[in-house]
Amino acid sequence: MKSKIPSREASLFCHSILSSLDRLVKCLDGLNENQLNWRPPAPNTNSLYALVVHTLAHTEESLLLTLFDQPSQRDREQEFQAKGQSADALIAQWQSLRERLQQTLLNLSADDLERKHLHPRRGYITGLDILLIVATHIAEHVGHAELTRDLALASTLQ
Questions:
Q1: Are 13 and 105 in contact (CB under 8 A)?
Q2: Which regions span the lipid bilayer (predicted)?
Q3: 145 domain residue, yes or no
């Protein structure tokens, strides 16, 4: 029988995931179109805009679909090609997604975290594993985004 008590782990992950995504989206603040879409001059690098699009899509897929055994129509490769004229659409997307994530995460039970779910790229993993993967993935991209922002600002000032 499913426990009605929210999981302590889910509450802790909720804070970490949401605050990291807040930091990620904050990297877009004050940037113009050129800075949002600038890519470091090295192979396989991504623009700040693409990093945010990708990270939000991965989070949504993992926490709102995979965790509840729903199929995803996500196009991962297309995320890295994303470009934008401004950050407005991404900020609005994040505000909407943030509310849904918070509601979802704070309502996860210990049973939800112990149950196995079919992840699109990792096979069957527990709900707790999904939270750990998402938190780690976001943290990596926050670091990428903060560095990319610094480089984009330095590069476009010249």
A1: yes
A2: none
A3: yes
Task: Output the average pLDDT for the chain.
Answer: 92
Question: What span, in angstroms and rounded, lies between the C-alpha atoms of 153 and 67?
Answer: 37
pLDDT tens digits for 141-154?
999 999 999 999 99
* Distances 48 to 10, 33, 62, 107 between C-alpha atoms, Å: 28, 11, 21, 31
* Domain harbouring 70, CATH code: 1.20.120.450
CA-wise closest residue to 7 among 118, 139, 112, 151: 112
1 pLDDT band, cuts 50/70/90, is very low
Per-residue DSSP letter, 97: H
* Residues with Cβ within 8 Å of residue 1, at least 6 apart in sequence: none
3 part of a folded domain:
no
Question: Is the pTM value of this prediction over 0.90?
Answer: yes
Q: Which residues form the domain of 48? A: 8-156
> What is the token pair recorded at 103?
């509601």
Is residue 1 domain-resident? no
Is the residue at 149 inside a domain?
Answer: yes
